[in-house]
From TrEMBL:
Cell wall formation. Adds enolpyruvyl to UDP-N-acetylglucosamine. Belongs to the EPSP synthase family. MurA subfamily. This is UDP-N-acetylglucosamine 1-carboxyvinyltransferase. CDD domains: UdpNAET (cd01555). The keyword DNA-binding does not apply. It is an enzyme of class 2 (transferase). It catalyses: phosphoenolpyruvate + UDP-N-acetyl-alpha-D-glucosamine = UDP-N-acetyl-3-O-(1-carboxyvinyl)-alpha-D-glucosamine + phosphate. Phosphoenolpyruvate binds at K22, N23. Its main location: cytoplasm. UDP-N-acetyl-alpha-D-glucosamine binds at R92, R121, P122, V123, D124, L125, D307, L329. It comes from Arcobacter roscoffensis. InterPro entries: Enolpyruvate_Tfrase_dom, Enolpyruvate_Tfrase_sf, MurA_subfamily, RNA3'P_cycl/enolpyr_Trfase_a/b, UDP_GlcNAc_COvinyl_MurA. Its EC number is 2.5.1.7. It is found in: Cytoplasm. The gene is murA.
Length: 421
């Protein structure tokens, strides 16, 4: 297994370029199942989750070619409708094939994703909405068996909770359904907006872009003619590099971003006394004479993203005072706390609220274990300011979502190397 060795306290500076967003790319690859033509997608991040999703497309009978951030996908030949356990267990986002496969073929079988390190993560809202659209769903032998022999019918879906994946699945299903689907309490993440835009460019009529009420006119099973497109920048990768600058208290320019997507993160950095300068497609974070503590509550977009919570916890260890982080989306997204404690942080957990005492707590390098994707990046950030050497094990979590992390960090002056144990 591979691990990262980081020597802390190096002075980082310069510029770093952000890759395409994993969480935008995954549903967009799933959406290609609705296409009748080959689609060229640019700015595709080179991360393990994307390769896994492409493998799933291949297993279903589709094909793809990948070169230098450009992926050409052809799903016209898909002749299988089962997403098997061995692939779904490595990547929960595989559930995103459920809506498009069912809409196109009238049946499919997708392994239940099960829980994961950050929480239980049920898919009940996806299933209930598809049932409302006329699907019959059975759970047998750990698989969701969905059928819609008469095709999916447009319907009014009111999500009990805001769900990103649920909204994406229903948007894709609705695009090929018969009639109009209205999604109330839809997620508003930029990734949803890009999925809507790509579907609209393929001729699907969608109203309510960027709002919590989306109305979709279905094509009644007619496959769509997609246009080529580029994946939007990864706002979570960008936020992570902003935290790298903040935790080391150095100036860093983060390029190829959409600053509007980073507003909640920028606002919290400003509360922590950092100056952030935004222009059209970059943000620059400047050092401060005092890192102030912060109070964070995670929420749906445009609120503060749960996917940035762990990174801000690492940053809060360097603040001059006590910060709090209230995790409202996932019941178990604090696995990084015990590893940050091993580095010398002073953090107390009470239910879903973490209290982080910053100030006098110098972190000291040691061996730590990554437990999930963003927990891993929190450990990387902490290691950048820890005294001495930190070895981060189980970095396969990190590789799911960060393209060339050690290359990018090294290019701005960090000492980060990958080894095999
Ligand atoms: C690939 C991808 O884009 N992943 C993101 C997506 O995950 P994902 O789409 O899985 O997250 P959801 O928005 O669906 O989950 C939000 C909350 O709703 C709950 N829920 C969800 C569906 C359901 O059927 N029933 C239910 O109870 C979840 O357990 C969670 O507590 O949004 C999350 C919340 O911003 C991010 O942390 C993930 O990085
Ligand atoms: C939790 C994440 O991803 P996933 O939903 O694929 O597990 C993430 O990107 O932080």
């Amino acid at each position: 297994m591979e691990y990262l060795k980081i020597i802390g306290n190096k002075e980082i500076s310069g510029e770093v370029e952000i890759s395409g967003a994993k969480n935008a790319a995954l549903p967009l690859i799933a959406a290609t199942i609705l296409a009748k033509n080959e689609i060229k997608i640019g700015n595709m991040p080179n991360v393990v989750d994307i390769n896994t999703f492409l493998k799933l497309i291949d297993m279903l009978g589709g094909s793809f070619e990948k070169q230098d951030g450009i992926v050409k996908i052809n799903t016209y030949e898909i002749d299988k409708t089962t997403a098997t356990y061995d692939i779904v267990k490595t990547m929960r986002a595989s559930i995103l094939v459920l809506g498009p496969l069912l809409a196109r073929f009238g049946h499919c079988e997708v392994s239940l994703p099960g829980g994961c390190a950050i929480g239980q993560r049920p898919v009940d809202l996806h299933l209930k909405a598809l049932e409302q659209m006329g699907a019959k769903i059975d759970i047998k032998h750990g698989y969701i068996q969905a059928t819609a022999p008469e095709g999916l019918k447009g319907s009014k879906i009111v999500f009990d909770k805001v769900t990103v994946g649920g909204t994406e699945n229903i948007l894709m299903a609705a695009a090929l359904a018969q009639g109009t689907t209205t999604i109330i309490n839809a997620a508003k993440e930029p990734e949803i907006e890009q999925l809507c835009e790509v579907l609209m460019n393929a001729g699907v009529k969608i109203e309510g872009l960027g709002t919590s009420k989306l109305t979709v006119e279905g094509s009644n099973k007619e496959l769509l003619e997609f246009k080529d497109f580029d994946i939007i920048p990864d706002r979570i990768e960008a936020g992570t590099y902003m935290c790298a600058a903040a935790i080391t208290n150095r100036k860093l320019k983060i390029k190829k971003v959409i600053p509007l997507h980073l507003e909640a993160v920028i606002s919290k950095l400003e509360e922590m006394n950092f100056e952030v300068i935004s222009d059209e497609n970059s943000v620059t974070i400047l050092p401060t004479d005092e890192i102030k503590p912060v109070n964070i509550i995670t929420s749906e977009y445009p609120g503060f993203p749960t996917d940035m919570q762990a990174q801000f916890m690492a940053l809060a260890t360097q603040a001059n005072g006590t910060s709090t982080i209230d995790e409202r989306l996932f019941e178990n997204r604090f696995m990084h706390v015990s590893e940050l404690l091993r580095l010398g942080a002073d953090i107390h957990l009470n239910g879903n609220i973490a209290t982080i005492n910053g100030q006098s707590h110098t972190l000291n390098g040691t061996d730590v274990m990554a437990t999930d994707l963003r927990a891993s990046s929190a450990l990387v950030l902490a290691a950048l300011v820890a005294k001495g050497e930190t070895n981060i094990h189980r970095i396969y979590h990190l590789d799911r979502g960060y393209e060339n992390l050690e290359g990018k960090l090294t290019s701005i002056g960090s000492d980060v190397k990958r080894f095999t144990e």
